[in-house]
Amino acid sequence: MAQRADVQDLLQTLRRTGVVDRRTYTQEQLKGTTDGVVYELAVAGETAYILKLDCPEQIRQVERFYEAYADSSLLPRLLQADPAGGSMVYSYVPGTTHIHRGPKVRWMIRLVQELLNQYQAYPGIGGWGRLEAPRESWRAFQERSAEDASRILAGVLPAEDHARIRGLIGRISDAGEPYLLHGDTGIHNFVFHHRELSGVIDPSPMTGPVLYDFTYAFCSSPDDLNLDTLLAAYDMLDPKPVDRTRLMEETFFQLYCRIAICVRVHPQDLEGYLQVWPYWRDLIS
To answer: What's the domain count of the chain?
Structure first.
């Protein structure tokens, strides 16, 4: 990965080679991944590009995702990727994450139509789940997800709920063929502009069924976690890989994992998730 002291040298090269406007300058350093760092690049006082510095493998994985779905109107435009040098540059998507997002059903439908319906099968990858740590099967990935969540939720949900989740895994483990997924389709990575979904950023690429990114997005905020919203968005998915019962079970499993993430990272949302948990538990009973 390029050192932070090298950013100005890198920017000079990007200007000289025409990747960015010759007037471009670094505006702000943003929070990146564990090993990475992100910079906003501006032109004439307006943010125009994002410069991401990270380890070569992470840059390579993100490049792969952006190139696979370059036609999606929701993804930034990849301008340059240099995995060996640990850097990439892509267009800035104006707006805000998390807030001013409008009804969930509206942005879920747009997500489905403009991104998820473009997903492509990714055969021959040799594993399921995170590209940097693939599992031998989708079931193995789900079992690990459930184990991790159960440890976090041991004092949050009753024992019978944990047992119910473990019992679901066998029914939702047949994933068909793997697809190249964004892997982190939550509202923290959704850009909203004028209360409409305008961008999806910061992929953490993985392989799995399209339904994973779909249910992850649906469960990524505690608002509008109801069956009507789920079905309205799912009706736009093409093709529809599972029936209604399986969709509800997949959503219940994803909600369980999301509550664990909430406890660890977003405790302010926990009350909202716990309020809706009995509703979903009753739906699949």
So the answer is: 2
